[in-house]
Specification:
The protein has helices at 2-16, 64-68, 75-90, 102-110, 125-134, 162-166; strands spanning 19-20, 27-29, 35-37, 44-45. It is mainly alpha-helical.
Amino acid sequence: LWCAASLIEALRALHEQHVLLRGVAAAWLDADGYVQLVDLHHSKRLDGEERTYTLLGSPGCFSPEMLKGCGHTLSADCWALGAVLHELATGRRPFGRPGGDGMAMLKAVRDFDPAVLHLPAHVEPRTAALIKGLLQPDPAQRLGAAGAGAVRQHEAVSGINWEAMAKGGVESPL
């Protein structure tokens, strides 16, 4: 869960500044083994509960509300985080596949029913619960609805020393 924790912490830092990333998939490891978000050109500062309506970012990380055109908030980044964590945990994307039908993938996201999300048995139950909480189609019910800071309290990652991690004080296993 090291990469997940690094992504959660990076999003938390952006969300504290009211910055919507819209591109969680673009990340690198730095020299200390921490995940660094590298593509901020689609990011946008939001004021409070402001919504944005522009469809920008990585299509594989678009949230249902982005595709429905009803406006999206910081919660859209938490959906994208769920999609990335799904791929890290299973080796495959939750919607579509590389080189697959892009329109079918977007329709699957837009019309997503969480009852059909089944993770392989090798995915630890707490990790599966984290992914399912992030891939909640209702943005108000999504884990991290008010920003990624709340994701740090989920049982899958609650044992992490977040303060030390924010300062680079946790040794990376990578």
